[in-house]
C-alpha cells in the first residue's frame, strides 16, 4: 500500500477500524475519509486518547484503552473491543516497519465518534460509530522542549467543584473531542506570555491543564523522599495515565502519595509543580502567574525515569 502514499506522508500512518476490518486497515491520511455528517466532526461528539510509543512499544496501553472505554461509557458511544485497538496499533507499527523503520518516538491517537446520525456503520453497537488511529512521529519541538520550565497561568474553568456530580450531562471526566475550550484557554495564555494553563473551579479548587494533569511535590525531611500530591478526581478532571504510572512507581520506591483537594495557594506553597501528560512527560513549572517556583531537574528526571518503567496505572478509584 505504501507506494500509493504521497512522499510527505511517510511521517504519518493511519488505520481505521470497522466491522469489515475489526483488526484495522491502513489508509492514506491525506485522502478524504470522514463523512461531513459525522457527529464527531460537526458536534465534537466523540472521544480520543493520545498514547506515547518508544521504539515501537506503546506505553500504558491498557490504561489508555481502559480510559477510552470509560469515556465511551460516559458518552454512551459504542467502541470496538480492546483487541481491535491493539491489533490496529500493531498494524500501524507494521506499516512503519514496511516503510523502513518505526520512529523512535510516536504519538498514537485513537479516535472514536458517534458516527453519522441514524446511519450506524454496523448493527453491532461496538462498530456502529467511526473509529481510527493516527500514528505520528513526536514533533522535534516537543522533544527539544522536554524539561524546559513552563510559565503557567491559572484560569477559571467556569464551573464549581460539585459540577461533575450535579450535572453529569457535562460529561466531565470523559476525554471528548470537544477541546475547543481547552485550545482557547491555551491561546489566551499564550497571548499573555504564558506557556500553559492550570484550570481552577469557580470556588477555587485546582483542576488540571488543558492537556495535562497537575502534580505537586512537598519536600520530605532530611534524606526522606518527597510527597507527591495530585488533585482529586471528583471535580471531573481526567484520570491521568501519566500521573497514575508515576504514582505506581513512586509507591514502589517508598514515596508518600496524596490526592488533593488542592487550592491555588497549595500550588504556590509547593516545593515543585509539574504538568504531566503522555507525550510531554513531566514538565516542570517555574512560574504560576506572578509567583516564581523552584525547579529541580534531578527530581524531574526521576519522575521521567519512573515513566520509563511503564508500570500499571494507579488511581484511587481503580
Ligand atoms: N487532562 C487532560 C484534559 C488531558 O487532555 C490530558 C492528556 O491529554 C491529561 C489530563 C493527561 O493525561 P495522560 O497523562 O493520560 O496523557
TrEMBL record:
GO molecular function: 4-amino-4-deoxychorismate lyase activity
Top-level taxon in the UniProt lineage: Bacteria
GO BP annotation list: carboxylic acid biosynthetic process
InterPro entries: Aminotrans_IV (IPR001544), Aminotransferase-like (IPR036038), BCAT-like_C (IPR043132), BCAT-like_N (IPR043131), Class-IV_PLP-Dep_Aminotrnsfr (IPR050571)
Keywords: Lyase
Entry EC number(s): 4.1.3.38
Gene Ontology cellular component list: cytosol
Similarity field: Belongs to the class-IV pyridoxal-phosphate-dependent aminotransferase family.
Protein name, UniProt field: 4-amino-4-deoxychorismate lyase
Organism: Nesterenkonia sandarakina
Amino acid at each position: 500500500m505504501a507506494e500509493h502514499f504521497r512522499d510527505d506522508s511517510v511521517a504519518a500512518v493511519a488505520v481505521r477500524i470497522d466491522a469489515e476490518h475489526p483488526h484495522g486497515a491502513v489508509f492514506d491520511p491525506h485522502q478524504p475519509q470522514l463523512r461531513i455528517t459525522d457527529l464527531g466532526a460537526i458536534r465534537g461528539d466523540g472521544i480520543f486518547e493520545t498514547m506515547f510509543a518508544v521504539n515501537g512499544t506503546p506505553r500504558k496501553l491498557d490504561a489508555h484503552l481502559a480510559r477510552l472505554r470509560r469515556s465511551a461509557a460516559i458518552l454512551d458511544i459504542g467502541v470496538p473491543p480492546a483487541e481491535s485497538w491493539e491489533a490496529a496499533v500493531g498494524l500501524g507499527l507494521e506499516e512503519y516497519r514496511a516503510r523502513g523503520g518505526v520512529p523512535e518516538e510516536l504519538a498514537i491517537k485513537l479516535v472514536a465518534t458517534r458516527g453519522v446520525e441514524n446511519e450506524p456503520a454496523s448493527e453491532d453497537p461496538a462498530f456502529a460509530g467511526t473509529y481510527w488511529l493516527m500514528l505520528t512521529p513526536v514533533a522535534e519541538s516537543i522533544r527539544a522542549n522536554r524539561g524546559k520550565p513552563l510559565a503557567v497561568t491559572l484560569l477559571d474553568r467556569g464551573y464549581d467543584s460539585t459540577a461533575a456530580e450535579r450535572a453529569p450531562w457535562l460529561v466531565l471526566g470523559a476525554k471528548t473531542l470537544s477541546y475547543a475550550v481547552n485550545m482557547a484557554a491555551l491561546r489566551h495564555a499564550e497571548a499573555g506570555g504564558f506557556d500553559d494553563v492550570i484550570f481552577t473551579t469557580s470556588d477555587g479548587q485546582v483542576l488540571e491543564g488543558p492537556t495535562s494533569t497537575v502534580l505537586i511535590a512537598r519536600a520530605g525531611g532530611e534524606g526522606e523522599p518527597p510527597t507527591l500530591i495530585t488533585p482529586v478526581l471528583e471535580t471531573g478532571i481526567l484520570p491521568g495515565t501519566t500521573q497514575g504510572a508515576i504514582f505506581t512507581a513512586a509507591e514502589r520506591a517508598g514515596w508518600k502519595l496524596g490526592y488533593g483537594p488542592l487550592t491555588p495557594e497549595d500550588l504556590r506553597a509547593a516545593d515543585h509543580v509539574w504538568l504531566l501528560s503522555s507525550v510531554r512527560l513531566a514538565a516542570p513549572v517555574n512560574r504560576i502567574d506572578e509567583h516564581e517556583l523552584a525547579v529541580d531537574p534531578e527530581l524531574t528526571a526521576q519522575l521521567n525515569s519512573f515513566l520509563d518503567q511503564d508500570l500499571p496505572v494507579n488511581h484511587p478509584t481503580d
